[in-house]
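Dear colleagues,

For the upcoming journal club I promised to circulate an example of a predicted protein-ligand complex. I picked one with iron/sulfur cluster because it came up in last month's discussion. The inputs are reproduced below in full, followed by the predicted structure.
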Amino acid sequence: MSGILAHAGYSVVREAEAADVWVLNSCTVKTPSEDQAFNLVRMAKEKGKRVVMAGCVSQADPSAEWLQDVSIVGVKQIDQVEEAVKGSLEGKSVRILTRNRPHAPLDLPKIRKNPLVEVLAISTGCLNQCTYCKTKAARGDLKSISLEDLVARAKKAFEEGVKELWLTSEDLGAWGRDIGLVIPDLLHALVEVIPEGCRMRLGMTNPPYIMDHLHEIAEILLHPRVYRFLHIPIQSASDEVLRHMKREYTVVDFCKAVDYLLERVPDLYIATDFICAYPTESKKDFEESMALVRRYHFPSLFINQYYPRSGTPAAALPRVDAKEAKARTAEMSAYFRGYSRFDDTRVGKEETVLICEEAADGVHLVGHSSSYEQILVPRRCGMGMERRVRITSVGKFHMMAEPVEDIPEIKEEEESTMESTKMAQSRLEVIPTNGVEEGLADDVIVDNRSISARQLALITVIVLVLAVVLKKLMQVLMRD
Ligand code: SF4
Protein backbone atom coordinates (compact mmCIF):
# COMPACT_ATOMS: atom_id res chain seq x y z
CA MET A 1 0.00 0.00 0.00
CA SER A 2 2.92 2.34 0.73
CA GLY A 3 4.32 1.60 -2.70
CA ILE A 4 1.00 2.24 -4.46
CA LEU A 5 0.45 5.52 -2.65
CA ALA A 6 4.00 6.76 -3.15
CA HIS A 7 3.78 5.81 -6.82
CA ALA A 8 0.53 7.81 -7.07
CA GLY A 9 2.32 10.93 -5.81
CA TYR A 10 1.53 10.87 -2.11
CA SER A 11 4.29 11.35 0.46
CA VAL A 12 4.51 8.38 2.78
CA VAL A 13 5.70 9.58 6.17
CA ARG A 14 6.19 7.87 9.52
CA GLU A 15 5.44 10.86 11.70
CA ALA A 16 1.76 10.53 12.54
CA GLU A 17 1.32 14.23 13.21
CA ALA A 18 2.58 15.16 9.74
CA ALA A 19 0.02 13.03 7.94
CA ASP A 20 -3.40 14.02 6.61
CA VAL A 21 -4.68 10.48 6.51
CA TRP A 22 -3.65 7.43 8.51
CA VAL A 23 -3.67 4.09 6.69
CA LEU A 24 -3.89 1.41 9.40
CA ASN A 25 -3.15 -2.17 8.51
CA SER A 26 -4.83 -4.40 11.08
CA CYS A 27 -4.53 -7.97 12.33
CA THR A 28 -7.31 -9.90 14.01
CA VAL A 29 -5.41 -12.98 15.13
CA LYS A 30 -5.21 -11.88 18.78
CA THR A 31 -7.19 -9.52 20.97
CA PRO A 32 -4.29 -7.11 21.73
CA SER A 33 -3.66 -6.48 18.03
CA GLU A 34 -7.35 -5.74 17.51
CA ASP A 35 -7.34 -3.44 20.55
CA GLN A 36 -4.39 -1.62 19.05
CA ALA A 37 -6.35 -0.98 15.86
CA PHE A 38 -9.27 0.33 17.92
CA ASN A 39 -6.99 2.65 19.92
CA LEU A 40 -5.31 3.99 16.79
CA VAL A 41 -8.65 4.79 15.17
CA ARG A 42 -9.75 6.62 18.32
CA MET A 43 -6.46 8.53 18.45
CA ALA A 44 -6.75 9.48 14.78
CA LYS A 45 -10.27 10.80 15.32
CA GLU A 46 -9.14 12.85 18.35
CA LYS A 47 -6.43 14.42 16.22
CA GLY A 48 -8.84 15.13 13.38
CA LYS A 49 -7.12 12.75 10.96
CA ARG A 50 -8.91 10.81 8.27
CA VAL A 51 -8.53 7.03 8.57
CA VAL A 52 -8.31 4.21 6.04
CA MET A 53 -8.42 0.77 7.65
CA ALA A 54 -7.02 -2.26 5.88
CA GLY A 55 -6.40 -5.83 6.96
CA CYS A 56 -8.36 -8.49 8.79
CA VAL A 57 -10.02 -6.52 11.62
CA SER A 58 -12.09 -4.33 9.30
CA GLN A 59 -12.58 -7.15 6.78
CA ALA A 60 -14.03 -9.47 9.44
CA ASP A 61 -16.31 -6.92 11.06
CA PRO A 62 -16.82 -3.82 8.86
CA SER A 63 -20.07 -2.89 10.57
CA ALA A 64 -18.45 -2.51 14.01
CA GLU A 65 -19.63 0.65 15.72
CA TRP A 66 -16.14 2.14 15.98
CA LEU A 67 -15.54 1.72 12.22
CA GLN A 68 -18.68 3.61 11.18
CA ASP A 69 -17.11 6.72 9.64
CA VAL A 70 -13.86 5.07 8.65
CA SER A 71 -12.87 4.14 5.08
CA ILE A 72 -12.09 0.45 4.59
CA VAL A 73 -10.00 -1.44 2.07
CA GLY A 74 -10.52 -5.21 1.99
CA VAL A 75 -7.77 -7.80 2.21
CA LYS A 76 -8.04 -8.45 -1.53
CA GLN A 77 -8.32 -4.82 -2.59
CA ILE A 78 -5.03 -3.30 -1.56
CA ASP A 79 -4.58 -2.23 -5.20
CA GLN A 80 -7.50 0.16 -4.58
CA VAL A 81 -6.03 1.86 -1.53
CA GLU A 82 -5.45 5.07 -3.50
CA GLU A 83 -9.19 5.34 -4.18
CA ALA A 84 -9.90 5.00 -0.46
CA VAL A 85 -7.27 7.57 0.51
CA LYS A 86 -8.51 10.03 -2.11
CA GLY A 87 -12.12 9.63 -0.98
CA SER A 88 -11.14 10.01 2.69
CA LEU A 89 -9.29 13.24 1.98
CA GLU A 90 -12.48 14.50 0.33
CA GLY A 91 -14.34 13.71 3.55
CA LYS A 92 -16.07 10.55 2.30
CA SER A 93 -16.19 7.13 3.94
CA VAL A 94 -15.14 4.77 1.19
CA ARG A 95 -15.72 1.01 1.55
CA ILE A 96 -14.02 -1.33 -0.86
CA LEU A 97 -14.85 -4.78 0.43
CA THR A 98 -15.45 -8.14 -1.14
CA ARG A 99 -13.64 -11.42 -0.97
CA ASN A 100 -15.25 -12.64 -4.19
CA ARG A 101 -12.61 -11.36 -6.52
CA PRO A 102 -9.19 -12.56 -7.62
CA HIS A 103 -6.06 -11.46 -5.78
CA ALA A 104 -4.89 -7.91 -6.30
CA PRO A 105 -2.63 -7.86 -9.38
CA LEU A 106 0.97 -8.82 -8.72
CA ASP A 107 2.58 -5.98 -10.65
CA LEU A 108 2.06 -3.35 -7.94
CA PRO A 109 4.67 -0.79 -6.93
CA LYS A 110 6.08 -1.54 -3.51
CA ILE A 111 8.20 -0.23 -0.67
CA ARG A 112 10.13 -2.88 1.20
CA LYS A 113 10.32 -2.41 4.94
CA ASN A 114 13.75 -4.03 4.79
CA PRO A 115 15.30 -3.62 1.32
CA LEU A 116 17.12 -6.94 1.77
CA VAL A 117 14.00 -8.99 2.50
CA GLU A 118 11.18 -9.93 0.16
CA VAL A 119 8.08 -11.06 2.03
CA LEU A 120 6.14 -13.15 -0.42
CA ALA A 121 2.54 -14.05 0.42
CA ILE A 122 1.92 -17.26 -1.50
CA SER A 123 -1.81 -17.52 -0.75
CA THR A 124 -4.64 -16.14 1.34
CA GLY A 125 -7.11 -18.07 3.45
CA CYS A 126 -6.91 -21.69 4.47
CA LEU A 127 -8.72 -25.03 4.25
CA ASN A 128 -9.54 -25.25 7.95
CA GLN A 129 -12.29 -24.09 10.32
CA CYS A 130 -10.46 -23.85 13.64
CA THR A 131 -13.00 -23.07 16.31
CA TYR A 132 -11.03 -20.28 18.03
CA CYS A 133 -9.94 -18.45 14.86
CA LYS A 134 -11.27 -15.13 13.63
CA THR A 135 -8.79 -14.80 10.78
CA LYS A 136 -10.83 -17.30 8.79
CA ALA A 137 -13.80 -14.91 8.81
CA ALA A 138 -11.62 -12.22 7.24
CA ARG A 139 -9.55 -14.28 4.84
CA GLY A 140 -11.92 -17.06 3.81
CA ASP A 141 -11.00 -20.21 1.93
CA LEU A 142 -7.63 -20.96 0.41
CA LYS A 143 -6.71 -18.96 -2.68
CA SER A 144 -3.25 -19.77 -3.97
CA ILE A 145 -1.25 -17.40 -6.12
CA SER A 146 -0.04 -19.09 -9.30
CA LEU A 147 3.33 -20.81 -9.37
CA GLU A 148 4.47 -18.79 -12.39
CA ASP A 149 3.63 -15.45 -10.77
CA LEU A 150 5.36 -16.36 -7.52
CA VAL A 151 8.52 -17.56 -9.24
CA ALA A 152 8.62 -14.45 -11.43
CA ARG A 153 8.14 -12.30 -8.35
CA ALA A 154 10.96 -14.01 -6.44
CA LYS A 155 13.28 -13.74 -9.44
CA LYS A 156 12.60 -10.04 -9.80
CA ALA A 157 13.13 -9.41 -6.07
CA PHE A 158 16.55 -11.08 -6.18
CA GLU A 159 17.46 -9.02 -9.25
CA GLU A 160 16.57 -5.91 -7.25
CA GLY A 161 19.08 -6.81 -4.54
CA VAL A 162 16.97 -8.78 -2.09
CA LYS A 163 18.94 -11.37 -0.08
CA GLU A 164 16.23 -13.22 1.81
CA LEU A 165 12.90 -14.51 0.55
CA TRP A 166 10.32 -15.15 3.30
CA LEU A 167 7.30 -17.17 2.28
CA THR A 168 4.14 -16.28 4.20
CA SER A 169 0.58 -17.57 4.28
CA GLU A 170 -2.00 -18.82 6.76
CA ASP A 171 -0.88 -22.36 5.95
CA LEU A 172 2.12 -22.91 3.68
CA GLY A 173 1.50 -26.66 3.41
CA ALA A 174 -1.92 -26.10 1.86
CA TRP A 175 -0.62 -23.99 -1.04
CA GLY A 176 -1.72 -25.20 -4.46
CA ARG A 177 -4.54 -27.52 -3.37
CA ASP A 178 -7.12 -25.20 -4.96
CA ILE A 179 -5.21 -25.01 -8.26
CA GLY A 180 -4.26 -28.66 -8.71
CA LEU A 181 -0.72 -28.36 -7.35
CA VAL A 182 1.09 -29.19 -4.09
CA ILE A 183 3.61 -27.27 -2.03
CA PRO A 184 6.72 -29.19 -3.21
CA ASP A 185 5.93 -28.00 -6.77
CA LEU A 186 6.33 -24.41 -5.65
CA LEU A 187 9.35 -24.97 -3.40
CA HIS A 188 11.29 -26.87 -6.07
CA ALA A 189 10.59 -24.08 -8.56
CA LEU A 190 11.62 -21.35 -6.11
CA VAL A 191 14.97 -22.87 -5.10
CA GLU A 192 15.93 -22.76 -8.77
CA VAL A 193 15.87 -18.96 -8.75
CA ILE A 194 17.67 -18.29 -5.43
CA PRO A 195 21.08 -16.90 -6.34
CA GLU A 196 24.35 -17.66 -4.53
CA GLY A 197 24.57 -15.61 -1.30
CA CYS A 198 20.77 -15.49 -0.84
CA ARG A 199 18.38 -17.69 1.12
CA MET A 200 14.72 -18.63 1.43
CA ARG A 201 12.78 -19.08 4.68
CA LEU A 202 9.65 -21.20 4.70
CA GLY A 203 6.60 -19.92 6.59
CA MET A 204 4.11 -21.42 8.97
CA THR A 205 2.60 -24.74 8.04
CA ASN A 206 -0.09 -26.71 9.83
CA PRO A 207 0.64 -30.43 10.14
CA PRO A 208 -2.15 -31.96 7.95
CA TYR A 209 -1.02 -30.80 4.54
CA ILE A 210 2.70 -31.42 4.83
CA MET A 211 2.21 -34.99 6.05
CA ASP A 212 1.94 -36.21 2.44
CA HIS A 213 5.17 -34.47 1.43
CA LEU A 214 7.63 -35.00 4.27
CA HIS A 215 10.26 -36.50 1.99
CA GLU A 216 10.20 -33.49 -0.38
CA ILE A 217 10.04 -30.97 2.48
CA ALA A 218 13.18 -32.56 4.01
CA GLU A 219 14.88 -32.38 0.63
CA ILE A 220 14.04 -28.67 0.30
CA LEU A 221 15.21 -27.91 3.84
CA LEU A 222 18.55 -29.55 3.02
CA HIS A 223 19.07 -27.22 0.08
CA PRO A 224 22.10 -24.98 0.80
CA ARG A 225 20.11 -21.84 0.03
CA VAL A 226 17.11 -22.68 2.21
CA TYR A 227 17.10 -22.06 5.97
CA ARG A 228 16.66 -25.23 8.00
CA PHE A 229 13.69 -23.67 9.75
CA LEU A 230 10.05 -24.66 9.99
CA HIS A 231 7.16 -23.26 12.02
CA ILE A 232 4.58 -25.97 12.75
CA PRO A 233 1.94 -24.81 15.27
CA ILE A 234 0.55 -27.67 17.34
CA GLN A 235 -1.68 -25.56 19.69
CA SER A 236 -2.30 -28.46 22.09
CA ALA A 237 -0.76 -31.88 22.74
CA SER A 238 -4.10 -33.39 23.73
CA ASP A 239 -6.00 -35.20 20.95
CA GLU A 240 -9.22 -34.39 22.71
CA VAL A 241 -8.53 -30.64 22.65
CA LEU A 242 -7.27 -30.78 19.05
CA ARG A 243 -10.54 -32.42 18.09
CA HIS A 244 -12.51 -29.71 19.86
CA MET A 245 -10.42 -27.08 18.09
CA LYS A 246 -11.08 -28.84 14.73
CA ARG A 247 -7.38 -28.87 13.97
CA GLU A 248 -7.63 -32.03 11.85
CA TYR A 249 -4.48 -33.79 13.03
CA THR A 250 -3.44 -35.77 16.07
CA VAL A 251 -0.45 -35.43 18.36
CA VAL A 252 0.99 -38.55 16.75
CA ASP A 253 0.74 -36.87 13.31
CA PHE A 254 2.63 -33.86 14.62
CA CYS A 255 5.34 -35.98 16.25
CA LYS A 256 5.65 -38.14 13.15
CA ALA A 257 6.27 -35.06 11.00
CA VAL A 258 8.69 -33.47 13.47
CA ASP A 259 10.65 -36.70 14.14
CA TYR A 260 10.93 -37.46 10.44
CA LEU A 261 12.27 -34.01 9.65
CA LEU A 262 14.59 -33.81 12.68
CA GLU A 263 16.09 -37.15 11.73
CA ARG A 264 16.81 -36.17 8.14
CA VAL A 265 17.63 -32.47 8.46
CA PRO A 266 20.55 -31.90 10.83
CA ASP A 267 20.14 -28.94 13.23
CA LEU A 268 16.61 -28.25 12.00
CA TYR A 269 15.05 -25.35 13.92
CA ILE A 270 11.40 -26.06 14.70
CA ALA A 271 9.14 -23.39 16.14
CA THR A 272 5.65 -24.14 17.40
CA ASP A 273 2.63 -22.49 19.08
CA PHE A 274 0.53 -23.51 22.06
CA ILE A 275 -2.82 -22.14 23.19
CA CYS A 276 -3.05 -22.52 26.97
CA ALA A 277 -6.45 -22.97 28.65
CA TYR A 278 -8.67 -23.53 25.60
CA PRO A 279 -12.20 -23.82 27.10
CA THR A 280 -12.22 -27.62 27.09
CA GLU A 281 -8.59 -28.06 28.19
CA SER A 282 -8.38 -30.02 31.46
CA LYS A 283 -5.38 -30.03 33.77
CA LYS A 284 -4.47 -33.43 32.29
CA ASP A 285 -4.66 -32.03 28.72
CA PHE A 286 -2.36 -29.22 29.75
CA GLU A 287 0.10 -31.70 31.29
CA GLU A 288 0.23 -33.44 27.91
CA SER A 289 1.19 -30.14 26.29
CA MET A 290 3.90 -29.62 28.91
CA ALA A 291 5.22 -33.12 28.28
CA LEU A 292 5.58 -32.31 24.58
CA VAL A 293 7.50 -29.13 25.35
CA ARG A 294 9.81 -31.16 27.62
CA ARG A 295 10.29 -33.75 24.90
CA TYR A 296 11.28 -31.41 22.07
CA HIS A 297 12.61 -28.30 23.82
CA PHE A 298 11.39 -26.19 20.90
CA PRO A 299 13.84 -23.32 20.41
CA SER A 300 10.94 -20.95 19.62
CA LEU A 301 7.64 -21.32 21.40
CA PHE A 302 4.71 -18.97 20.92
CA ILE A 303 2.61 -19.36 24.05
CA ASN A 304 -0.84 -17.80 23.91
CA GLN A 305 -3.31 -17.80 26.75
CA TYR A 306 -6.71 -18.52 25.23
CA TYR A 307 -8.93 -15.51 24.80
CA PRO A 308 -12.32 -15.76 23.05
CA ARG A 309 -12.56 -14.05 19.67
CA SER A 310 -16.05 -12.73 19.03
CA GLY A 311 -18.12 -14.67 16.53
CA THR A 312 -16.04 -17.86 16.78
CA PRO A 313 -17.61 -21.17 17.96
CA ALA A 314 -15.18 -21.41 20.90
CA ALA A 315 -16.34 -18.03 22.21
CA ALA A 316 -19.67 -19.62 23.17
CA LEU A 317 -18.00 -22.14 25.50
CA PRO A 318 -17.49 -21.58 29.23
CA ARG A 319 -13.92 -20.55 29.93
CA VAL A 320 -11.29 -22.11 32.15
CA ASP A 321 -11.05 -20.26 35.47
CA ALA A 322 -8.98 -17.10 34.88
CA LYS A 323 -6.48 -17.84 37.67
CA GLU A 324 -5.96 -21.37 36.42
CA ALA A 325 -5.55 -20.17 32.82
CA LYS A 326 -2.93 -17.68 33.94
CA ALA A 327 -1.12 -20.30 36.00
CA ARG A 328 -0.91 -22.71 33.03
CA THR A 329 0.41 -20.02 30.73
CA ALA A 330 2.95 -18.96 33.35
CA GLU A 331 4.08 -22.54 33.93
CA MET A 332 4.75 -23.14 30.26
CA SER A 333 6.48 -19.78 29.87
CA ALA A 334 8.69 -20.43 32.92
CA TYR A 335 9.69 -23.84 31.58
CA PHE A 336 10.50 -22.33 28.18
CA ARG A 337 12.67 -19.64 29.77
CA GLY A 338 14.58 -22.34 31.67
CA TYR A 339 16.22 -24.06 28.69
CA SER A 340 18.20 -22.90 25.71
CA ARG A 341 19.14 -24.23 22.30
CA PHE A 342 22.53 -22.59 22.71
CA ASP A 343 25.06 -23.88 25.22
CA ASP A 344 28.76 -23.33 25.84
CA THR A 345 29.75 -26.17 23.51
CA ARG A 346 28.89 -23.77 20.68
CA VAL A 347 31.56 -21.25 21.73
CA GLY A 348 34.52 -21.37 19.35
CA LYS A 349 32.48 -23.11 16.60
CA GLU A 350 32.20 -21.53 13.16
CA GLU A 351 29.02 -20.70 11.23
CA THR A 352 28.22 -19.05 7.93
CA VAL A 353 25.72 -16.26 8.45
CA LEU A 354 23.69 -14.10 6.10
CA ILE A 355 23.36 -10.60 7.56
CA CYS A 356 20.10 -8.83 6.79
CA GLU A 357 18.89 -7.06 9.95
CA GLU A 358 19.81 -4.48 12.56
CA ALA A 359 20.08 -5.85 16.12
CA ALA A 360 17.73 -4.39 18.72
CA ASP A 361 20.77 -3.18 20.71
CA GLY A 362 21.47 -0.67 17.91
CA VAL A 363 25.12 -1.76 17.97
CA HIS A 364 25.30 -5.09 16.17
CA LEU A 365 23.89 -6.57 13.01
CA VAL A 366 21.88 -9.78 12.95
CA GLY A 367 23.05 -12.67 10.85
CA HIS A 368 21.28 -15.99 10.54
CA SER A 369 23.00 -19.35 10.43
CA SER A 370 21.85 -22.08 8.04
CA SER A 371 19.41 -23.16 10.81
CA TYR A 372 18.07 -19.61 11.11
CA GLU A 373 19.72 -19.14 14.50
CA GLN A 374 20.22 -15.50 15.41
CA ILE A 375 23.87 -14.54 15.55
CA LEU A 376 24.86 -10.99 16.45
CA VAL A 377 27.95 -9.76 14.63
CA PRO A 378 29.92 -6.48 14.57
CA ARG A 379 28.67 -3.84 12.14
CA ARG A 380 31.83 -4.07 10.08
CA CYS A 381 30.62 -7.47 8.81
CA GLY A 382 28.27 -5.46 6.55
CA MET A 383 24.57 -5.60 5.73
CA GLY A 384 23.61 -8.09 3.05
CA MET A 385 26.91 -9.99 3.37
CA GLU A 386 27.45 -13.66 3.90
CA ARG A 387 30.27 -14.15 6.45
CA ARG A 388 32.10 -16.96 8.15
CA VAL A 389 32.00 -16.19 11.88
CA ARG A 390 33.21 -17.76 15.13
CA ILE A 391 30.86 -17.94 18.15
CA THR A 392 32.16 -16.02 21.16
CA SER A 393 29.25 -16.34 23.61
CA VAL A 394 25.72 -17.71 23.87
CA GLY A 395 22.43 -16.42 25.29
CA LYS A 396 18.84 -17.68 25.42
CA PHE A 397 17.74 -16.33 22.05
CA HIS A 398 20.96 -15.53 20.22
CA MET A 399 24.70 -16.06 20.01
CA MET A 400 27.46 -13.48 19.62
CA ALA A 401 30.21 -13.95 17.05
CA GLU A 402 33.26 -12.34 15.46
CA PRO A 403 34.19 -12.66 11.79
CA VAL A 404 36.79 -15.32 11.06
CA GLU A 405 38.45 -13.22 8.36
CA ASP A 406 40.00 -9.79 8.91
CA ILE A 407 37.46 -7.04 8.15
CA PRO A 408 38.55 -3.43 8.68
CA GLU A 409 36.58 -1.38 11.20
CA ILE A 410 34.06 0.99 9.60
CA LYS A 411 35.10 4.62 10.01
CA GLU A 412 32.53 6.82 11.73
CA GLU A 413 31.82 8.90 8.59
CA GLU A 414 31.34 5.78 6.47
CA GLU A 415 28.94 4.41 9.03
CA SER A 416 26.85 7.57 9.14
CA THR A 417 26.70 7.59 5.32
CA MET A 418 25.57 3.95 5.43
CA GLU A 419 22.96 4.82 8.04
CA SER A 420 21.49 7.71 6.09
CA THR A 421 21.46 5.67 2.89
CA LYS A 422 19.64 2.90 4.72
CA MET A 423 17.13 5.34 6.22
CA ALA A 424 16.49 6.86 2.82
CA GLN A 425 16.03 3.41 1.33
CA SER A 426 13.72 2.10 4.00
CA ARG A 427 11.56 5.19 4.04
CA LEU A 428 11.45 6.32 0.48
CA GLU A 429 12.40 3.56 -1.89
CA VAL A 430 9.53 2.89 -4.27
CA ILE A 431 10.01 -0.13 -6.42
CA PRO A 432 7.58 -0.73 -9.25
CA THR A 433 7.50 -4.51 -8.92
CA ASN A 434 4.97 -7.23 -9.33
CA GLY A 435 4.02 -8.33 -5.85
CA VAL A 436 2.07 -7.85 -2.69
CA GLU A 437 3.83 -7.63 0.64
CA GLU A 438 1.89 -9.29 3.42
CA GLY A 439 4.68 -8.70 5.88
CA LEU A 440 4.49 -4.91 5.69
CA ALA A 441 2.60 -4.77 8.95
CA ASP A 442 3.64 -1.27 9.97
CA ASP A 443 0.99 1.34 9.69
CA VAL A 444 1.48 3.60 6.77
CA ILE A 445 0.87 7.26 7.19
CA VAL A 446 0.08 9.29 4.16
CA ASP A 447 0.62 12.97 3.70
CA ASN A 448 -0.67 14.54 0.50
CA ARG A 449 1.11 17.83 1.00
CA SER A 450 3.98 18.68 -1.30
CA ILE A 451 6.68 18.23 1.35
CA SER A 452 8.53 14.88 1.27
CA ALA A 453 10.01 12.86 4.16
CA ARG A 454 13.53 13.76 2.99
CA GLN A 455 12.65 17.47 3.05
CA LEU A 456 11.09 17.05 6.48
CA ALA A 457 14.27 15.43 7.80
CA LEU A 458 16.34 18.33 6.42
CA ILE A 459 14.03 20.91 7.99
CA THR A 460 14.23 19.07 11.33
CA VAL A 461 18.04 19.20 11.24
CA ILE A 462 18.01 22.92 10.40
CA VAL A 463 15.55 23.65 13.21
CA LEU A 464 17.70 21.69 15.69
CA VAL A 465 20.87 23.54 14.65
CA LEU A 466 19.07 26.89 14.95
CA ALA A 467 17.78 25.91 18.40
CA VAL A 468 21.31 25.09 19.62
CA VAL A 469 22.72 28.35 18.21
CA LEU A 470 19.87 30.32 19.79
CA LYS A 471 20.42 28.63 23.17
CA LYS A 472 24.15 29.48 23.10
CA LEU A 473 23.34 33.06 22.15
CA MET A 474 20.89 33.37 25.03
CA GLN A 475 23.47 31.97 27.47
CA VAL A 476 26.07 34.56 26.29
CA LEU A 477 23.53 37.41 26.55
CA MET A 478 22.43 36.31 30.05
CA ARG A 479 26.08 36.18 31.23
CA ASP A 480 26.70 39.68 29.82
S1 SF4 B 1 -5.66 -22.86 9.81
FE1 SF4 B 1 -7.11 -22.54 11.50
S2 SF4 B 1 -6.09 -21.00 12.78
FE2 SF4 B 1 -5.07 -20.92 10.78
S3 SF4 B 1 -6.19 -19.33 9.62
FE3 SF4 B 1 -7.16 -21.31 9.12
S4 SF4 B 1 -8.87 -21.50 10.54
FE4 SF4 B 1 -7.48 -19.92 11.36
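Two points we might discuss: Confidence is low (pLDDT under 50) at residues 419-457. The domain at 344-412 is CATH 2.40.50.140 (OB fold (Dihydrolipoamide Acetyltransferase, E2P)).

See you all on Thursday,
B. R.
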